[in-house]
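Quarterly update from the structural biology core.
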Amino acid sequence: MGVSAGPACPVCGQAGVPILYGLPGPAARRAAAAGRIKLAGCVMGPDPDQWICPAKHEWRTGDDAQFGAAVRAAIAAE
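Predicted structure, tokenized:
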């Protein structure tokens, strides 16, 4: 299963990958190792960033449906 590119970075225009907070399971660790998601740990502030691009810019779109779908697709892809 392929994973579609995330939204374009507002700074550089490159596609982003979702940032996953919390304790990752094995599938999430594999997705992170493959570069499909970014693991960010358990501590989150209010309105945490949702996306990161290859240039390490982080941003939030506020589209929770798109973000949730991207996280699920990244973890499900093998």
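Strands lie at 17-20, 38-39, 51-52, 58-59.
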